[in-house]
Amino acid sequence: MKKGVMRPGHVQIRVLDMKEAVEHYTDLVGLIETDRDDQGRVYLKAWTEVDKFSVVLRETDQPGCDFMGFKVLDEDTLVSLTQGLKDFGLEVEEIPAEELKGCGRRVRFTVASGHAFELYADKEYTGKWGVTEVNPEAWPRGLSGMKATRFDHALFYGPNLPEVLDVFTNVLGFHLAEQVMDPDGNRIAQFLTASMKEHDIAFIHSDEPGQLHHTSYYLETWDDVLRAADLISMTDTSIDIGPTRHGLTHGKTIYFFDPSGNRCEVFCGGDYTYPDHKPVTWTADELGKAIFYHDRVLNERFLTVLT
Fold first, then answer.
1. Span 178-188, pLDDT tens digits
2. pTM of the entire structure?
3. Distance between CA atoms of 190 and 262, rounded to whole angstroms?
4. Which residues contact 72 (CB under 8 A, 6 or more apart)?
């Protein structure tokens, strides 16, 4: 097993109206705009993130996710993992440095669920926003909205979960932290991590490929999640469900929609995992409790609204 993926690095989200989207992700979620490019894309980051950006917004006529990128340890790791992807049988596309402003060369590939992912080793280091690296204060003044601390993970819907698990675990070195199994022994949901976090990426089975369920942003406390709920009501933002707790991962969460219909999550808490931990397993008959631990039932919107 090859190692070297450090963390989720960025996600490019398709939006229908850039002005509305920027207001949503900055004024409400609390991300910080760091740049724009000649394609019209807008670059954002959360205040604790040390690289230039983690979220890229691209205006188009259909919402969803173009790709998600992971930062790897160094250039040698990027070369090694690229060869591993090719040996696995995946087509690899080389994206030149600076195609995303401030980011080094990227290697893009599409997995069997129909989702595009990238690996890269270099991105402009800007440090945490609003605090110094020597004798830093606890947090910066001037943060907006929910004051998200980082882009944390994304959840995708698509087919062929065993093949996706294979490439993420056996090529990229991720660890299966949690799963949902149906009565026939088929894995219908898988939560994968490259770190101690309960998940850096997750997949749920769907016959239709390439769908985004949500992007997720980390908050520090349950009080912050409750405050996020207040802000959602204050701004008449479309809400999905919450505040509540997950059974899967045990994170405390709330879901809502950006103006283009892309689902967002902010959450706090959650379990930790190490590579020697066995996967936590939920059974499909308890899926309601696994997703919404308090209500113990799923709402139709959560299962069917995808971009």
1. 999 999 999 99
2. 0.95
3. 21
4. 4, 5, 6, 78, 81, 119, 120, 121
Question: Using DSSP, how many helices (H) and how many strands (E) does the chain show?
Answer: 6, 17
Which has the closest alpha carbon to 253: 264, 242, 261? 242
Say which of 10, 175, 199, 205 is annotated catalytic: 199
Cβ neighbours around 154 below 10 Å, total: 22
pLDDT in tens, 249-272: 888 999 999 999 999 999 999 899
Is 255 assigned a catalytic role? yes
Taking the domains of the chain in order of start, what are their residue ranges?
Answer: 5-120, 150-304
The two structure tokens encoding residue 15: 């939006």
Could you confirm whether 24 is annotated as catalytic?
Answer: no
Residue range 150-304 forms a domain whose CATH class is alpha beta
Measured distance CA(214)–CA(6) in Å, rounded: 21
The rounded distance, in Å, linking the Cα atoms of 12 and 166 is 24
Catalytic site residue 265?
yes
CATH 3.40.50.1820 fits 5-120, yes or no: no
Same CATH fold assignment for domains 5-120 and 150-304: yes
